[in-house]
Amino acid sequence: MTAPFHLQSGFSWPQGKRFAASLTFDVDAESGALAFDSTFHKRMSLMTHQHYGPTVAVPKLLALLAHHDIQATFYVPGYTADLYPDMVRSLVDAGHEIGHHGWMHEKTTALADAQEAEMLDRGLESLARVGVTPVGYRAPWWEYNYRTTELLLERGFRYDSSLLDGDVPYRFRSAQDAPGDLVEVPVDWAMDDWEQFAFYPEWTGSGVIESPTKALEMWSYEADVAAQAGNCWVLTNHPFISGRPSRLAALSELITHIKNLPGAWFATLEQIAEHTRTVVDEVRVHRRIPDPGPQPGQDPDGRPTSPVRDNL
Fold first, then answer.
1. Angle formed by the axes of helices 58-68 and 245-259, to 10°?
2. Cβ–Cβ contacts within 10 Å for residue 298, how many?
3. At residue 187, what are phi and psi to the nearest 5 degrees?
4. pLDDT in tens, 227-250
5. Is 100:107 a contact under the CB 8 Å cutoff?
């Protein structure tokens, strides 16, 4: 079965492959919570909730990936690498890709230019201490700034995976006359375990923790359509979330399902990005939306002055 014409991507995958599938893991550990509120380091239960990822979940994930003979991409904040260097080395020893994910999982939209540059350098220094020189970047919270492209190119990065405007990878640069370009391997919130399972009081989540079978059904259907259309299927998981037993079992079922789809190419994002450079010549520039100025119901800085409500 093939997808309707309006879903076909037309992307050229390696010979004999119809679509790409990649498992990615953001190893935030304690950094995500501490970036939200640095006083959380005092909350022992919350810290153990995050500690579960690098200490309990990652070894199980490594065993799962070895069982299925798959290489994955792990995005590691510098702070995580500093706290758990042996964990990062275990990922490298198993042949997996390590990508840059900030230093303390910073909210990059709140940073000045120099602060974002410092964040990148600090993360690189932490990864270098465990023998890793990343070529891929994923912005914390998927918050990529217009200035980020030049900062990444200056530091030798080859690709990013933070933007949400594609079904297949593409090449882009910061301006028409800018030298160099990055490959973008797009992501999607529907393909992130955070939206299905993440919850901790006074920090994150709605309190509605979904069933693993619901996520399995949704992500399997996403893969089915990707296979039919020739798309790039990228799943974003967090070890402290999807390394829990029932979700790990569902992840194993998901991998089996995808491997049984005709023409599946399981690859790291580095492999997908390098392939993209060989088959894509066009280099895009993202259109910047002009500042519309404050609107009714907003303060002079454009922020809401009161909750929005219907006039019923």
1. 20
2. 14
3. -125, 180
4. 999 999 999 999 999 999 999 999
5. no
Q: Which class is domain 16-282? A: alpha beta
- Name which of 170, 205, 200, 203 is nearest 185 in CA terms: 170
Which SS3 state, helix, strand or coil, does residue 155 take? coil
AA identity, residue 48? T
Structure tokens at 19: 């679509």
pLDDT tens, position by position, 49-91: 999 999 999 999 999 999 999 999 999 999 999 999 999 999 9
With the C-alpha atoms ordered 231, 21, 247, 48, is the resulting torsion angle positive or negative? Answer: negative
For tokens 């996403």, name the residue: 222
**Tokens 């492999």 sit on residue:** 271
pTM over 0.85: yes
Do 209 and 199 meet the contact criterion of CB atoms below 8 Å apart? yes
- Dist. CA 72–CA 53, nearest whole Å: 16
DSSP 193: T
